[in-house]
Amino acid sequence: MVRPAFRSSSEPRLETTVFSDLSERIHYNLPSLPIYAYHEPLSGFAGYRCPCHWHRDLEFVHVVSGRMHYFVNGTVTVMEAGEGILVNSSRLHYGFSPERREAWFSCAVISPALFESATPSVAARCAQAFAQDMPDLLTLSPHVDWQRDMLDAVDRVVRLMPDDPQGNPLPTLAAAIDVCDMAIGRLLSEGARADACNADARDAAAGLDAGAAADAGADASAQASTEQRDRMDVLLMTGMIQQRFREPLTLAGIAASAHVSRTQCCLLFRRYVGRTPVEYLTERRLEEAKRQLGGTARAIAEIAADCGFSSPSYFASVFRRHVGVTPREFRERR
């Protein structure tokens, strides 16, 4: 199994900032260098689940120990120790453990701003690789040469990231550009392979019946349009929750924000967020409660009311069920 270097000299920063459209502000190691590179535990996130989010950055994950599930645009990939994943730019994603079991993983999140403006050809290559019709993800196995090389490259980025803000970031920068170049090349080749398969299918359909081929093309176009609309509806509904989670929201109200039925609302959340609307709302409220418990001296009852919980006792019950400790115990451990 490929083992990455451990960064024992600094603690991983597990805080997340997710905006109303589910985009995430990434807390980079060095503010002036748009690279996040840490070795971290899944237990650092509430309920062993990262918040659902997206960003323009490419995200690389290498599981070091345990088992980890990764949700990307409706697809869940299970990774064992030694395996990893590349998440393409601007895809909804999050890592989690449904059994709430520990997993340690190396994570490198790298902004295209590091290299995409180098030349017009590089910019065009990035735009093509990051397009929505390209692969959402690539799975990485230590048993496939090019995938093992990418896993090694992810470990190298994490290992080379300086702990000291005054340290030399150039080796990290070079390693980050190297792994992104590998990733972009593979995304383009996998995308071309998928296009070739689709072209073969269209040719086969055309050989049978020209009308059927036209219908197949129209169906594919309609499906892509529906997919795009569904994703926009999800962003509208999750955005509404992010902005109004303090209010007494209902399933009907969440669905109405995207002009869909309650049934469609639940289906879209399950597909693209991997949670029910109510579960997502509860997690958003808990994230805010954790922030206030750790960063303010407000009374627990005040925090409960401010985060949308109907009573302090209900807040305490939900908090303990999801976080594993009471709000008071959580505050005392900070």
UniProtKB/TrEMBL annotation:
<keyword id="KW-0805">Transcription regulation</keyword>
<keyword id="KW-0238">DNA-binding</keyword>
<dbReference type="InterPro" id="IPR009057">
    <property type="entry name" value="Homeodomain-like_sf"/>
</dbReference>
<dbReference type="InterPro" id="IPR020449">
    <property type="entry name" value="Tscrpt_reg_AraC-type_HTH"/>
</dbReference>
<dbReference type="Pfam" id="PF07883">
    <property type="entry name" value="Cupin_2"/>
</dbReference>
<dbReference type="InterPro" id="IPR050204">
    <property type="entry name" value="AraC_XylS_family_regulators"/>
</dbReference>
<dbReference type="InterPro" id="IPR014710">
    <property type="entry name" value="RmlC-like_jellyroll"/>
</dbReference>
<protein>
    <submittedName>
        <fullName>AraC family transcriptional regulator</fullName>
    </submittedName>
</protein>
<dbReference type="Pfam" id="PF12833">
    <property type="entry name" value="HTH_18"/>
</dbReference>
<dbReference type="InterPro" id="IPR037923">
    <property type="entry name" value="HTH-like"/>
</dbReference>
<dbReference type="InterPro" id="IPR018062">
    <property type="entry name" value="HTH_AraC-typ_CS"/>
</dbReference>
<keyword id="KW-0804">Transcription</keyword>
<keyword id="KW-0010">Activator</keyword>
<dbReference type="InterPro" id="IPR013096">
    <property type="entry name" value="Cupin_2"/>
</dbReference>
<dbReference type="GO" id="GO:0003700">
    <property type="term" value="F:DNA-binding transcription factor activity"/>
</dbReference>
<feature type="domain" description="HTH araC/xylS-type">
    <location>
        <begin position="235"/>
        <end position="333"/>
    </location>
</feature>
<dbReference type="InterPro" id="IPR018060">
    <property type="entry name" value="HTH_AraC"/>
</dbReference>
<dbReference type="GO" id="GO:0043565">
    <property type="term" value="F:sequence-specific DNA binding"/>
</dbReference>
